[in-house]
Amino acid sequence: MNNDFHRITQTLHKNELLRLHKGEARRIEVVAGTLWITLDNDPRDIVLDPGQGFGIGDNDKVLLSALDEVRFVVLQ
To answer: Cα 11–52–41 angle (5° rounding)?
Structure first.
């Protein structure tokens, strides 16, 4: 397994949104707060709490929504 990911730590305030485009992220890991992830053409509601993560496909367009103040790591 290749662990040479580029890590970017980000913070969103409650109700802020962030769109990630295709190939911009491989994985999201929440450090603090609660993050809601929406993938284009995917009916699931993905909600992450601290310590949880979610893998992102190369072709996924992703919308991140902060349910409260949230700090998370984007692995590229």
So the answer is: 80
Q: Where are the domains of the chain?
A: 7-75
Contact status, residue 60 vs residue 24, Cβ threshold 8 Å: no
pLDDT at 71: 97
The token pair that represents 65 in the structure block: 């929504």
Q: Which two tokens stand for residue 68?
A: 């409260």
Could you give the C-alpha distances from 2 to 6, 16, 75, in angstroms and in order?
12, 32, 12
pLDDT greater than 60 at residue 2: no
**Architecture of domain 7-75 in this structure:** Sandwich (2.60)
